[in-house]
Amino acid sequence: MSTIEPAIGGGVPEPVSPLREAWTVYRRNAPAVFGTLLLFAIVAFVLYGTFIYKGDPYEIVWAPQTPPGVEATVPLGTDNLGRDLLRGLLKGGGPTLAVGAAAAIITLVIGILLGGIAGYFGGWIDDLLMRITEFFQVLPALLFAMVVITLFSPSTITTSIAIGVVLWPQTARLTRAEFLKIRELEYVMAARSIGARNGRIMWKVILPNALPPLIVSATLTVGVAILFQAGLSFLGLDDPNTMSWGLMIGTNRQYILDAWWPVTFPGVAIFLTVFAVSLVGDGLNDAFNPKLRER
Amino acid sequence: MKLTRRDILGSAGALLVAPNFAFEAQAAEPQMGGTMVMVSTQVPRHLNPAVQSGIATAIPGTQIFASPLRYDADWTPHPYLAESWKVADDALSVTLNLVKGAKFHDGKPITSEDVKFSIETIKAHHPFKTMFEPVSSVETPDEHTAVIHLAHPHPALLLCLSGALCPIIPKHVFGDGQDIMNHPANSNPVGSGPFKIAEFKAGQQIVLEKNPDFFIKGRPYLDKIVIRIVPDLSSIILAVEGGQADFLPFLAESQSIIRLQKSDRLGVTDKGYAAVGPINWLAFNTAKPPLDNKAVRQAIGYAIDRNFITKALLRGIAKPQRSPIIESSPFFNPKMPSYGLDLNKANAMLDQAGHKKGPDGMRFKLTVDYIPGGGEEQEGIAQYLKSQLKKAGIDIEVRASPDFPTWAKRISNYDFDLTMDEVYNWGDPVIGVHRTYLSSNIRKGVIWSNTQQYRNPKVDELLNKAAVEKDPAKRKGFYDEFQMIVGDDLPIYWVNALPYHTIYNKRLGNVPESIWGSMQSMDEVYWKKA
Amino acid sequence: MGLTAYIVRRLIYGIILLAGVLVLNFFLIHAAPGDPAETIAGAMGGATAEMLSGIRAAYGLDKPLLTQLAIYLGHVAHGDLGMSYYFNQPVISLIAARVGPTILLVFAAQLIAITVGVVMGVLAARKPSGPLSAVITVLSTVGYAAPVFWTGIMLIILFASIIPIFPVDGMTSARFSGGFVAHVVDVLYHLALPAFTLAIIFLAQYSRLSRASMIDVLGADYVRTARAKGLSETKVVFRHALRNAVLPIITVAGIQFGNLISGALLVESVFNWPGMGRLAFDSVLRRDYPTLLGILFFAALMVVIANLLTDLSYRFADPRIRTGGR
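Output (structure tokens, whole complex):
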């Protein structure tokens, strides 16, 4: 396997509060600020929208395939069965975002644990863990997630776990690289010389300093996880009793010749979310690595 | 342009001489040759209908294999591989006289031994056990004569000898001792019909080529049939509209049918599905309270608006269906109660049954399942039931299944309250109707058995009598009575006939419109001269 | 280490990885809730108790787990991935019919993504803070952020329905007749839309990558010298700068191979492309485990081969690279 790491490495800690400095850079970055606002808007839309615009997204409320803007009660129109698309968008956003976040957390936990141990201890432990990582990277992620979900029946939890399980290797490699670099630094040596236990050094000394690139990676993983969730539910590998954006596209794709809107709106929703998350991730990356700004 | 059924009946004499299984007017002259491209969402497991039921295998299977008889659009049997047949006076045997000189695709002659082998194979392995269960033996006095002996009269037998139900398969290929269910030749069969297999790409494409030695001279007209399997409906519609495909059978989605009806180039017909008898229904788990109470089931019947479903939900494309027997069948009893919408009556009946409304206006909660991927006929109606039955104080939760096996497992293990379901009559009630209502067919784990767990000794008795009654009028009498009883017991609320339509290029002649439609030989289909 | 020894070592390692995939496959299917025999029976249309025990015997499911594993591995070593639960065919022949179309799709998409991505990156690098650069960055991010199946559906609406210029009925025309060249043209015609759709997700990566390395190189001394010598800008870009971008592009192309297969899974489903992805999807719906596991194995095999090829081309592109890793 190639040993080139993702381009977001290089989080060497600096004496001045790096977070404060990063924030200064971040808020001057127009795309990043735009992405942040967009992301907040989407989350607010999903969280609070259902309180304002109530109703069961599965319920048949109006004539099938009513185009958007034609009927005030269904502002975004209806699908092939006559269900309100706005309700679907609002109710379907929650699971989509939740799975994205949960899967990213799972990815981060597994990745940091394995990558951290590998990077810190090195030697045969590193070798073994990296072989395991490579092993998981050989399996095409979406296919592997499909198999896991098929075998353990689809639900929001299964989907989150499956996505987390297939996405962690990249985080593990990144964490390992950071730990490898930081463990040789003076303050780590110092901590070791006063007899601090390994776990403590890893958790309290190295991890906080390795955090910036990991945060960037976690942010981008949320975007990937949302795309995965959407792809899986598009393929029908999701709990059909839980509305989600991918499910809406999957069930309505059959009828695109007569109605474009039931697939277009949820697709735009996914796109905007992932787009916003990517802008935030890129912004964070630039903020933590001001020198790479030009790239 | 099209002839009506009555016109055809008027010329029935001519039909016997030259049986014509399609009813497109023969204005244009038949042309030899050409390729017909069919598109379908149906994925056949293999191509041997002797051991596999279902449309997917039946369509190519009936082109590859010939059956002893075939049917026209009026439920009349005609000679096919059997040039003539005779039912004994005691109705305990049927003699088939085979066409002489008929050959399998490998050149070996088709003999009575093969007929015997085929019937015995189907009897042992086909899921439709009732078809040949009464067959006690098949005698082969000579190469071209097969005598089917029956333990008791079996009026459905002739129908069971037609279409996909009785493919004549070569004994010298399938009788080699290998397990017939997993026989390699199932995917690469040596057939007896008008077309032979040229290519079978599982789940993708089937190419059938003209059998030049077909036993009917001058047939088939077409050189080639390509069956392209495309899982996505919108792509299929695009292929038909764009002229990449010429023939699309078993289309039921109302919006697409309406869309295609507008085309000048394309013909749209709902003929050719009489024997399939596809019924869309709502099944009750009659062993589970409160649905074990007949009054509750009837009340649900009165709370549903069948006309709204067919006219609004299904856009007027589907026909209402109120009986276990498809309304286009001669056995249908028009006296069946229809349970017209009457919410007051429904509420009163539920009150009387002891299910008073609670403070939230609800009496009890039920789940409704549906076949995943069934679209408007399944999920659509399930969602409709949710809002409609609320008006009768029934709280419905629609429960989706991720895929067909999950749904089938739930239903066949009685883990359900209500479920939408699609079940076919398959020609004779003995094949496709009895299985749903006989108490002897309550078989846990088997989908499309009596999963409602419905038991009524009178129904058992009537169905068992109808199965062996040789007098057609008496037989119809038994079925009439059976329908009235289940109409009252209501183990199932029948909703509509699935609106199967065939879409075809108008330049195609003799588009199949017999009772079996495209599940019978298409040797007569031809390209009109331009 | 010599090239041959290196390749042999990598091959052995690849085989161990693949054996690992098989073992994982095997335990996954047995860890899943439910009896495989019942699943098989379900695919056949329901079964009685006798039929179930018959199936268990036929598939060796009545033997101890480790014995089953040994039998399975033995079969795979002989190229036997078992029989499909759904089709009356060996898994290996089902997959064999599907590998070609998937490879074709994946490579075509890769080619488009790299070509278009590099061109975008080069254009953007010439004025890194100019408006063109910003537009290219945004466009490529848009391509990455839109779900690939949705992009595909939108392209179908646009180019197959509203302006019907592309077919969506698979890989070939059903009515096709003609010679080899006509056949190739027919396949390319069907390939265009799906390959382009799949390429869109990867544009961002390649354009960013080539933009970054171009910026690096364009500032380097030897490029300045080349410019000073009066070489045309095009020559500078193609002769010096682009060469520098080749290595990272090869690396990313190798890493992305698994993701390409994941993307192909969705694209095949949208465009009815008769590849492994669609077979995988159908197998999921039918609970056809042997086929599904066979596909997983084959996909892993493809990734292992792609990784090997990446490393080799890496070595070829830059002989200084030490092979053999850590």
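The longest strand of chain B covers residues 135-142.
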